[in-house]
Amino acid sequence: MDRECVSLLPRVCEVLAASGSSLPDDTSLEKLLDWFTALTKAEGSLLEACPCLLGFISTVVHNTALDPSILSFTLKLAGLVAVTEDGFKALQECSVLDLVFNLQRWQEAGLWEDPCIRIGWIQGLRAMLQHPKALSFFVQADFIQPLLQLQTDTSLFVASAANQMLAYVLVFCQSVSSVGCNGVDKKEDEDRSSHATTTDLEYPAVPMETNQDYTAVVTAILEYLKKSLVPKENTQLHQSVQILKVLALLLAQTRPPLWDKLLQTVVDSVEELLTADYSQLTLPLMDVILAAYSSCSADHRLPDQRVSRLLSFMLNIKKPADLIQAAAAFLRRGHHDRVHTAQSVRALLLPLDIITGLSLLDTNITDKERFSMVEQLKSKTSCISVICVCLTNTPQISLTAADCLPCPPALTVTAVLSLLRLCGGDSSSSSAGCSQVYTNVIGSGKVQKCALEALAALSGSPGVKVKLPEVFTLLIQYLDNPDSDPTVLHKSYQALVKWMTVCTDLSSITDHQKQDLVKVVRKRACDMRWEVRDSTVEFLGHLAGVNACQTSPGEVTDASEALLGGCCCTTPLFKEALQDPESYVRASAVSALAQTLAQSWQQGAAETQEQTEIVNRLLEILSEDTEGFARRAVVRYFIAWFSSRSSHSSPSPPTSSSLLMQSVRSVLSQGSADLDWEVKVHTLELAELLLDEAFSGHWGYVKGSDPHPVQPHPYAVISDQAYALHTHTGTHKEDVDSDLVGVLNSLVERGVISALLSGLVDCDRPVALKACRLLVTLRQTVCPRSLGALDATAAMATVARVTCELPGRGWALEIRKILAMRSQAKEADEEKSYNRADVVVSDDCGEAGEEAVGAECHTLPVSVCQVLRSLDLDERLDILTQSSDHVHNSPLSLLQDILTASAAHTRPNVQPGQEVIVDCY
Amino acid sequence: MKLYCLSGHPTLPCNVLKFKSTTIMLDCGLDTTSVLNFLPLPLVHSPRLSKLPGWVSKDGTINLEKELKECAGRVFVDSQPEFCLPERELLDLSNIDVILISNYHCMMALPYITEHTGFTGTVYATEPTLQIGRLLMEEVVNFMERVPKAQSATCWKNKEIQRMLPGPLKDAVDVWTWKRCYSMQEVNSALSKVQLVGYSQKVELFGAVQISPLSSGYSLGSSNWIIQSHHEKVSYVSGSSLLTTHPQPMDQSSLKNSDVLILTGLTQMPTANPDGMLGEFCSNLAMTIRAGGNVLVPCYSSGVIYDLLECLYQFIESANLGTTPFYFISPVANSSLEFSQIFAEWLCHNKQSKVYLPEPPFPHAELIQTNKLKHYPSIHGDFSSEFRQPCVVFTGHPSLRFGDVVHFMELWGKSGLNTIIFTEPDFSYLDALAPYQPLAMKCVYCPIDTRLNFHQVSKLLKEVQPLHVVCPEQYTQPPLTQSHRSDLMLELQPPPMPYRRCSVLNLPFRRRYERVYIMPELANSLVPSEIKPGISVATVSAVVHSKDNKHTLQSVPKPPPVAPSKKRKRVMDEPPVVLAPKPLLSGAVPLEAFLATLQKHGITEVKVEETADGHILHLQAEDTLIQLEEDGTHIVCDNNEPLRTTLRDLVLRFLQKL
Question: Is B562 part of any domain?
């Protein structure tokens, strides 16, 4: 721990103990606790590290007039201190412990009303309960009763914490007492420690009487659970829900024999609840049953008879809405239980069966079941919600083994298709369906979306490929329908792509259908709503990325080619989309173009006039577009082009890639001067590709700035695609070594070096970091430090002569300033070595540097190697690697903040800043 | 109360309501779908149309070469198009007191009614309805008169011959009543009978009923009407819309508490959502222009076109159509575009507030200013010199039988690059296109009908809760082509009363109360006496005066002083004999007390018998019966007047007198 922090802590404690109202903000205490928790984990005893805390706790506890938030903080802190037995003992010796957790005291002081005190109490106890002594304390103080009461507290936070605590106490009792008992073999012990939340703590043997205490606790809790589970009246349902939550936690965490005991205690009550038919309890009940069920299967035990019985009961409840919920919950867990799976699947398919009139189910469904479901479906709202639950679980259904399904998957696809037709108002196809029911789904966007998702998910089921033409026709109808809302259209496109990905054989699609698709895509590309234009363009891109074999089995082409006739249909649409007023559409068009052209790039097809036009337009977007999305997409386009080209053809054959090479230079210069940091990062990625290509095979070059493995971006999500793009085969074995000068020269010429240098001085950290890493790699390759300036070989000497130009403005000024400072410092160093006494390194060498730079506004040629060596890249890299808020978030800063705020508070004329009040007790 | 239904067309209604002593015509719609049976009237000589073969029946017995022409397998009448008028035989139209117009599309038959039936009443309409209605009538007259046809085909209407004709002509009904278009003079005369009203303005009709227009949200100045007396309320809902387009929103709350609600003018396209159609319109338009083709939009010169232009105003930018010219060609194009801008008080709130900025409420002003939208009275003149392709042309008539649209059909029909986009829902697009077949031009049908759909109307009716609903029979069953769509019909409790052309409905509702006024001096003379706490009763003797459907109670005039001369005395002058009114009795006779009283008067032998309604007392000694019932007392005794009088007085003692 920082010595400085320790020295500040006593003063901070004083401030806190004096008054809490002067805190910098109300998250400070939480942050402080986080720090203490981290300390506890790292150093074991908190009291050893910060002895002043003991005094603090005892002072605060005696002063009930303090702000409740400070008191709550102290309760939690006391728990943390008592985590170790030493700390516990220390607290007990100065008789603070009893005081801290003395519930009656808090009640008498009127502070118990405040939920933050209650939660502090619970969390303090929860933290402390790590060793048998603490448990003894807990038992002897008889905290179990108040804890049970808190379980139904008016504050949700308190109730939930109490719930967790209850579960924890039981699990803890189990683990502690089992150490004392014999008959626990080592393996199971290990299992348990990884299973239960208490870890890495060794328990001494527990005396017999303590063991009895635990048994008493366990019995008390079990009794309570049993007693309170079944509500006496409807108003007590809340309590039942809470208890069911505890049970779900417990049944998932405990192990036999406690598990058995628990189950034995509550099984009757659970059954009673099941028969009582409380709809609100369906889901919590299902959670409990499934927790019990899963914990059996997790241990590879046979499912307990009682659990199986409860589950069967659950899957046979009478209320259709509850039944659907239960069945869905069961299926989502993915158990391999044939009987119950089949039962759940049937329950979920029943509404589809009714609404579409297709007989998805065998005749085993009783008329009564069918009737009550029909009644449920007759109301519009419940119909839509039931159908949506069924549809969202269709992916699970499609994953189940064939012998659990009442009908082949193809029939399920037919049912979904039929439902989608009904939603569109076309019910002629299913006259067998219940008309009162299906009018409820006509025009329902929610059902449409769910059904389209289900349709997409079903594409992978066995034996459904025959349905492709039907699916295709329906999806085109949906795409053509004027009333489809943008999300429905989007989902239709997704479903279509999904089916195209799965069914590579498109021979079953007729020319007429293809024409319809072309027509509808053309129409949607002109849609009024930009979302629709965007999804259309995106779809075209995705389609180009899907492989399909159309004619002969060997001939593989992409789905865009097979369905739409390829570029001649899509490129005009993309060209229009590049002019779109909405930036998202422009961006999607750029990406889609990249996907469409990828194949021709890979094959090294000759450039066309059209391609030149497109490239010009893209460069125009990069330089002129006001929105970042489109510009980012343009840079990625060139990344994709560059990498797909180099992955297949030998590097830089002059003819095919001259257009690319010409444009890369503009992309690098414009991209690195962009205002958007992501564009700049992408530009650096392109520069990286150029480096990779230039130095591939060079002995000193480590690809992909590997010395520092790729870290997630500090403040951005970079698409996987961008990373996936530069996985090169790396098979080129050119003899590049001797040509280092030529390579470096070409990098300078293409603007790679400028891009890297400008990135280095960028104010956005991700950009600077990326540039810095690349520069480090470059330095290691072209002028390795090991050789040193003096030991340079002849070849190296020539490399050192390669220069790049630093113009007299923008980023280059910054670089020149750094270089000037370096050389001044160097001169000063040298001077110092001659005349140590006289030289004072002046603080204002920065200004001097600026003057030096300002004097010459023209371009300055500098040696690349010299620049690389002079920029202190390693030091920069260290700084940049730290997160930008590392200073701000340090505990030292927190402690200082607290002290400053209190100082400001004591000054009377300073107004306290506006507090942000957040509910976080 | 009766409703006479003169039109079977649900969106072009013409009904007559007899209510109290008034006869009110509700709307005056003209069914123009009949023109689809006629050949188009080309503005410029069309060799194709003039070369069409005449029709001769297969066996050659009927030769109507002059009247009927065959085109693409269908037969068309070669004459000036004729319209199907509202029924004129069902009742004497000269008795009509007033005609209420709900919107400018529902008044096109007005000249036929006001000019040739002896009509002497008044027509009520809002100002935009009148002005835009006039424009539409002018436009039709202009279209017809520009292409005069000397010949008038009548032979085919012969019943015997019509039976032999093919296709839709054979099934056309009432062809004898079809009439050619009216003249401008008739239009002017008809419209001179219009009296302007504003929303919520109350107009008294002969003191009997009060009529008042309410905003219906469908088009500029469109209205629903409330027709009410003191105790009855009839609502007439015609062509209403709940969508947010340019007109003032619909006033729903005033329709509440109606005894009868007559519901017409629901959407003709219940499955086509206007927003979706608007999107379809725009994307097809953009697609055609991008491919280098022209777009033809056959439309009326007012109404949806304002919304189309507004939508395009926003769309032009996003679809890069900035340089494409938009033309609006109609004899009344200029007036229509300008009128729309000046009827600020009839517009939706959003547009109204623009006027105060001040800005034109509709963005088409800006389109005109920036030369993106140009309008011309016809294809002749300036238009031909400035015409640039590819372009978008809005022009009439949507039936494609007359107007400038005929020319564009002939001009652009042969190229597959061009597209015709139908936006008006009044005509079947396949029938409209029939005389132009074979057609290479692409054709897109996106009817935009903003009127109420069934979902909206059932919500509306739930809200306003009328006692009875009357509607065209088409609304009481699902559309013929979609018999399973039970959501596309009105399902109400009690079920709506359907009507069809020539129906006469007795509206299921009886007038039970009438308001009568009492003169102050008469009121002063009344002496109320309380019979129950809070309820006082007084008797009144007065004379009822009825004038202008108002009833007044006046004091009975004193008998005039005896005339000095008794020579001439007419019977009529004799003053009414004024008798002091007998007091009204109330209360019940208590049995025990009555028996006691009888005993006091020496009547002792009384046998009491209980009946369903009261008691019968048998005075055995006197051989007399007294029947005491809830609403009457009878004393039956033979020829013993003194006894009867005594008994009567005894009974009266127990009753209150008024």
Answer: no
Residue-wise pLDDT for A706-724, tens only, equals 444 444 444 444 433 333 3
Taking the C-alpha atoms of residue B424 and residue B303, their distance in angstroms, rounded to an integer, is 10
Chain B residues with CB-CB distance to A425 below 8 A: 271, 482, 485
Q: What is the ipTM of this complex?
A: 0.80
Question: Which CATH number belongs to the domain containing residue B428 in this structure?
Answer: 3.40.50.10890
* B279 with A482: Cβ contact below 8 A: yes
pLDDT of residue B133: 96
Measure the CA–CA gap between A874 and A878, rounded to whole angstroms.
6
Task: Indicate the pLDDT class of residue A566, thresholds 50, 70 and 90.
Answer: confident
How far is residue A281's CA from residue A288's CA, in Å, rounded to a whole number?
Answer: 11
pLDDT cut 90: percent of chain A above it: 18
**Do A439 and B487 count as a contact with CB atoms less than 8 A apart?**
yes
Count of domains forming chain B: 3
Contact A528 B485 (CB under 8 A): no
Q: Is residue B523 part of a domain?
A: no
Rounded CA separation A863/A802 (Å): 6
Nearest beta carbon to residue B277 from set A431, A482, A530: A482
Q: Under an 8 A CB cutoff, do A442 and B487 touch?
A: yes
- How do residues A236-278 score in pLDDT, each as one tens digit? 777 888 888 888 888 887 777 778 888 888 888 888 888 877 7
Q: What is the pLDDT, as a whole number, of residue A111?
A: 85
CB-based contacts of B239, cutoff 8 Å, min separation 6:
B11, B102, B103, B105, B106, B216, B218, B219, B222, B264, B265, B451
Residues of B in contact with A580 (CB under 8 A): 318
**Residue ranges for chain B with pLDDT beneath 70:** 560-581, 658
**Domain around B628:** 585-657
Residues B460 and B592 grouped into a single domain = no
A885 falls in which pLDDT band (50, 70, 90)?
low
B223 membership: H or E segment, kind and range: strand B223-228
- Is A526 in contact with B272 (Cβ distance < 8 A)? no
Between A483, A522, A528, which is nearest B315 by CB?
A: A528
Chain B residues near residue A529 by CB distance under 8 angstroms: 279
Per-residue pLDDT for A517 more than 60?
yes
The answer to whether A528 contacts B311, with C-beta atoms less than 8 Å apart, is yes
Q: Is residue B536 part of a domain?
A: no
B275: nearest CA in chain A? A483
Residue B577 lies in a domain: no
- Please check whether residue B540 is in contact with residue B553, taking contact to mean a CB–CB distance below 8 angstroms: yes
* Separation in Å, CA of A578 to nearest CA in chain B: 11
- Is residue A230 within 8 Å of A240, Cβ to Cβ? yes
In whole angstroms, give the CA distance from residue B412 to residue B402: 16
**Are B290 and A581 a contacting pair at CB < 8 A?**
no
Inter-chain residue contact B284 with A523, CB threshold 8 Å: yes
State the nearest Cα–Cα gap between A527 and chain B, in angstroms: 5
- Choosing from B394, B410, B445, the residue where a domain stops is B445
- Same domain for B161 and B57: yes
Are residues B220 and B87 part of one domain? yes
Domain boundary among B445, B460, B487: B445
CB B379 within 8 A of CB B385: no
The pLDDT mean for chain A works out to: 79
- The residue among B146 and A700 whose pLDDT is bigger is B146
The reported pTM is 0.80
Question: pLDDT by residue (tens digit) across A31-49?
Answer: 888 888 888 888 777 777 7
Per DSSP bridges, beta strands B15-19 and B22-26 are antiparallel
* B606: CATH: 3.30.310
For residues B391 and B348, membership in a common domain is answered with yes
- Burial class (CB within 10 angstroms; exposed 0-12, middle 13-18, buried 19+) of B6: buried
